[in-house]
Write a structure and sequence with these properties.
Number of strands: 6
Structural class: alpha+beta
Radius of gyration: 26 Å
Strand order of the largest sheet: 1-2-3-4-5-6
Order of helices and strands: HHHHHEEEEEEHHHHHH
Length: 361
């Protein structure tokens, strides 16, 4: 086993390097987003620079969380290259320490880092993102989104059948909608009618649609001052319809999946997000193994730039594979556990295979 002193030294070295890289990326994202938010809010009266700085600070943790694997890869490669350049790993190997032994401290560090990121950092970043979205909604309207189609969509199931609701505006956490169009279906999935209303308000067990105009395939169009559309959605579920999976804390995802499925809504995105968070520690381990596979070559052999390029390229390929498999899982072509865990498993096995070939022939 590796000595306690050497283990503490390697753990401290890798921790500092990974956190330094992550902090640098965090600061870079903050500066870029801050400048962009200043540009977008320049014509809005009453918006101060301090307010924009606070809003940006709340937005950045959620974004920077996505680059944690790259920070781990870059920090691990920097640490390995530094240890190799100073011949510290050469001395360790001469003392009988194998590559698997001095890989144990960084692997343990990233496992702990991954657990911390999903149990503490993710809930904090999700909470800050929700507050930032509320601030953006107050400042820009609908979290500052833009585009030709800015409608909100809700799919529900009730005792009368299914309905798809589209609204141009929302307020009060999504319980009050404006410029509403509802497509109503019966229990067998057959289309019944289309309802257009100026406003919809969520009541216990039903929506109240004001100034509604009803279009049916079998009847003449008619108007109704207050039309009631049954629903089994709670205010919390309606609110979650407008919340992206990235804005839901890790601890809230399992219960949210159950409530969403009970309401007849599609919970694939939330289930996939939960499994991806669970797989994050293993993904960070895969990044460390990939970094080790491309960073342990002696400097006197040359080719350091090629090694660094190979490591960065491999990490990028793993990231693209992760996004591709995640999209397949989101489309329902793969189950959520397979889509979330397969890139981390394959990356870990490939990194270990390369190290076995390099070290043990």
């Amino acid at each position: 086993m590796i000595g306690r002193t050497l283990g503490r030294y390697l753990s401290l070295r890798f921790s500092k390097t990974i956190l330094s890289v992550f902090g640098t990326i965090f600061l870079l994202i903050y500066l870029i987003d801050f400048v962009e938010m200043l540009r977008r809010s320049g014509d809005i009266p009453g918006v101060t620079t301090a307010y924009v700085a606070l809003l940006t600070l709340m937005r950045v943790p959620s974004v920077s969380e996505q680059v944690l694997p790259f920070a781990t890869l870059g920090g691990a490669m920097a640490a390995f290259l530094g240890l190799t350049r100073k011949l510290e790993l050469v001395v360790a190997r001469a003392a009988g320490v194998s590559v698997w032994q001095f890989l144990a401290p960084p692997v343990l560090i990233v496992l702990l880092l991954g657990i911390f990121s999903i149990t503490v950092y993710n809930p904090l970043s999700a909470h800050l993102k929700q507050r930032a979205d509320a601030m953006e909604t107050k400042m820009f309207g609908r979290a500052g989104r833009s585009g030709s189609d800015t409608g909100l969509w809700i799919r529900q199931r009730s005792v009368d059948g299914q309905a798809i609701i589209r609204a141009e505006q929302s307020s009060s956490g999504g319980t009050q909608l404006g410029s509403v169009t509802a497509f109503v279906y019966d229990l067998d999935g057959r289309f019944l009618e289309r309802i257009e209303a100026a406003k919809a308000t969520l009541q216990p067990g039903f929506w109240t649609l004001d100034d509604a105009r009803i279009f049916s395939a079998t009847e003449e169009p008619r108007t109704n001052e207050h039309y009631q559309l049954s629903t089994n959605l709670s205010p919390e579920q309606v609110t979650q319809s407008f919340v992206s999976p990235d804005a839901v804390p890790f601890w809230s995802l399992p219960s949210l999946v159950e409530r969403t499925e009970a309401a007849g809504l599609d919970a694939t995105a939330y289930r996939l997000r939960f499994q991806a968070l669970l797989a994050r520690p293993l993904l960070l381990v895969a990044m460390v193994l990939i970094a080790a596979a491309f960073s342990l070559r002696f400097f006197r052999f040359g080719g350091i730039s090629k090694m660094v390029s190979g490591g960065v390229g491999s990490g990028f390929v793993l990231y693209v594979a992760t996004k591709l498999v995640s999209d397949l899982g989101g489309a329902g072509l793969l189950s959520a556990p397979v889509a979330a865990w397969s890139p981390a498993l394959v990356g870990s096995m490939l990194g270990a295979l390369v190290l076995l070939h390099q070290e043990d022939g």
